[in-house]
Design brief:
This protein has 246 residues and is mostly helical. The protein is built from eleven helices and no strands. It is 73% helix and 0% strand.
Length: 246
């Protein structure tokens, strides 16, 4: 019998072994893409494992549950954001105000790129209040590490007019975090999508205006990065939030 007549056994798909950190990041990347396309609520463990080509046991080796994986997604978002803000502060040129503008521009770009509003739809769920406070405490610490030297430089070169670098930093951080919580609560009390969007956008403008006054810079120094993409993401946030409550 000719060799060509021999039936060859089916080729088995070889299992690819990856470093644990690589596999974990891969699963998080897949989960995030599914969240962006289908939403946090719709995304399932089955979807993640099917796309990744791994067993459920592999998923649960890295994450205790779907919620635990979502928490790590949000944590990773924060780590990436503050790494980018640190890089922006280090590479910016000009005076202290220019450095602060660079930091804020980097924050806006990163949030839009990573669909920050999609993260908010998870982070601001009522059941995640404790998680949000814990993450905000860690993020406030990272934000202070970026912000304090910038305000200090701005005071020294005269581009920022503050009585106390420490005090001004504290108040700006209150705007970035506590004011964001208050804005969200106010937006939840709106009656339709247009009112919700307008409340969020006007609230962001108020935060920027307050920051200008705290730092003693001319009005209009900080421009709210509101464009069609941000408006659309805010509308998506409305649907994600209120559809869940129905």
């Amino acid at each position: 019998m000719a060799a060509s007549d021999v039936t060859k056994p089916a080729t088995r798909r070889r299992r690819v072994t990856k470093h644990p950190d690589v596999r974990r990041e891969e699963l998080l990347d897949i989960a995030w893409e599914l969240c962006r396309s289908d939403g946090f609520e719709t995304m399932s463990v089955d979807q993640v494992t099917q796309v990744a080509g791994v067993a459920k046991g592999t998923f649960y080796h890295y994450f205790a549950s779907k919620d635990a994986m979502l928490e790590q997604l949000v944590e990773r978002f924060g780590e990436g954001l503050f790494d980018q803000l640190s890089a922006a502060a280090a590479s910016a040129t000009g005076n202290g105000l220019d450095h602060l503008k660079a930091v804020m521009d980097a924050a806006g770009s990163y949030k839009v790129e990573k669909s920050d509003i999609s993260y908010a739809s998870f982070l601001y769920q009522p059941g995640n209040l404790a998680l949000r406070h814990r993450l905000f405490a860690a993020w406030r610490k990272r934000a202070r590490e970026v912000l304090l030297p910038v305000i200090s430089d701005g005071q020294a070169d005269g581009s920022l007019h503050v009585a106390s670098v420490e005090g001004a930093t504290d108040i700006v951080l209150l705007l970035w975090f506590e004011a964001a919580d208050q804005l969200w609560e106010r937006a939840l009390g709106t009656h339709d999508i247009d009112e919700f969007v307008n409340t969020m956008i006007a609230g962001a403008a108020s935060v920027y205006q307050a920051q200008e006054r705290i730092l003693g810079v001319p009005e209009g120094s900080f421009t709210v990065p509101i464009g069609p993409q941000v408006v659309e993401l805010t509308r998506q946030l409305y649907h994600t939030t209120f559809d869940r409550k129905q």
